[in-house]
């Protein structure tokens, strides 16, 4: 349905190689004022943010922000078993991508959605250098994971890494019915039926390490989450914002919204929130 594709205007997609053997992309602004590294979520891929997500990539490029992104291992056009990604390795890939952008003109911002939100946040917790601000969309930030849960996930991750430990349903992504239809018909969207054990185990380990580091976080951050999200827990976003030391931090909860807010009923408000937040920090108004 066209209402989910407001950003499908002409925009040049260029290959970007940052030395990790993954498929990278570059969308260049004509007069760049800033750069942004975008990290997609579980089972999806970077190019969705051109034609879906309220046309986020074209809107950023129009605002003078050059966008870089890459497909996680096992996702999109990158190599690897479909969806069987190690979150710790994804953080290393993200750090390498950030290093490759060190000489880009203007300030660097990060955007991460869902699993990409965890990868982005953990990357920042490891090394905050060189980043002006961070945006986390429905991030996978589990507030509490019991030792038993971590142990079981770790065992399954080693013994049966491709086994499904958490089921997923495209209907949980958006309140717009056509959104699930688009996902189900998209051959680029991996369909393992749920979260593989290797990803679950590595994500929990990544979270445990990152939560130890979050109190030292001082970089400006915007976090937005739907209160009816059944894929990732908005309580994790709330705890994250309460934990970090940054003085410039914003948490926006969208009442009743599902997981992909930029593909949901509140997409226009969410897009405006993202663009205005970036604009204020590019020109130094905060």
Brief write-up:
The protein has about 290 residues and is α/β, with parallel strands linked by helices. It has nine helices and ten strands.
What features would you highlight for this structure?
8-stranded mixed β-sheet; two-stranded antiparallel sheet; disordered N terminus; single chain; alpha/beta; 286 residues
Topology, pairings included?
Elements: E1 14-16, E2 24-27, E3 34-39, H1 48-51, H2 56-62, E4 65-70, H3 87-100, E5 108-113, H4 115-126, E6 133-137, H5 147-159, E7 164-167, H6 177-185, E8 194-196, H7 197-213, E9 221-226, H8 234-243, E10 249-254, H9 267-282
Parallel strand pairs: 3-4, 3-5, 5-6, 6-9, 9-10
Antiparallel strand pairs: 1-2, 2-4, 7-8
Helix pairs in contact: 3-4, 4-7, 5-7
Characterise the protein shown here.
The structure is a single chain. The protein has helices at 48-51, 56-62, 87-100, 115-126, 147-159, 177-185, 197-213, 234-243, 267-282, and strands at residues 14-16, 24-27, 34-39, 65-70, 108-113, 133-137, 164-167, 194-196, 221-226, 249-254. It is of the alpha/beta class and 286 residues long. Helix 4 packs across helix 7 (197-213) and helix 5 (147-159) packs across helix 7. The protein is globular and about 45 Å long. The protein starts with 13 loop residues before the first strand and ends with a helix.
């Amino acid at each position: 349905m066209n209402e989910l594709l407001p950003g499908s205007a002409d925009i040049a997609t260029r290959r970007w190689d940052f030395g990790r053997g993954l498929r990278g992309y570059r969308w260049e602004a004509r007069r760049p004022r800033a750069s942004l590294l975008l990290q997609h979520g579980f089972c999806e891929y970077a190019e969705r943010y051109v034609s879906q997500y309220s046309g986020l990539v074209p809107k950023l490029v129009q605002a003078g922000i050059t966008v870089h992104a890459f497909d996680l291992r096992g996702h999109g056009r990158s190599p690897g078993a479909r969806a069987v990604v190690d979150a710790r390795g994804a953080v290393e890939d993200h750090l390498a991508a950030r290093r490759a952008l060190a000489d880009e003109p203007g300030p660097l911002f990060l955007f991460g959605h869902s699993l990409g939100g965890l990868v982005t946040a953990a990357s920042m917790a490891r090394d905050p250098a060189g980043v002006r601000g961070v945006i986390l969309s429905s991030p996978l930030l589990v507030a509490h994971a019991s030792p038993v849960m971590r142990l079981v996930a770790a065992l399954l991750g080693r013994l049966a890494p491709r086994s499904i430990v958490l089921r997923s349903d495209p209907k949980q992504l958006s309140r717009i019915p056509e959104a699930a239809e688009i996902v189900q018909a998209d051959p680029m969207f991996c369909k393992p039926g749920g979260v593989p054990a290797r990803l679950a185990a590595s994500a929990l380990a990544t979270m445990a390490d990152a939560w130890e580091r979050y109190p030292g976080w001082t970089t400006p951050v915007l976090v937005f989450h739907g209160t009816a999200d059944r894929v990732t827990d908005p309580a994790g976003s709330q705890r994250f914002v309460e934990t970090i030391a940054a003085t410039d931090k914003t948490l926006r909860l969208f009442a009743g919204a599902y997981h992909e807010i930029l593909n949901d009923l509140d997409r226009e408000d969410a897009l405006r929130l993202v663009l205005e937040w970036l604009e204020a920090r590019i020109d130094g108004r905060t």
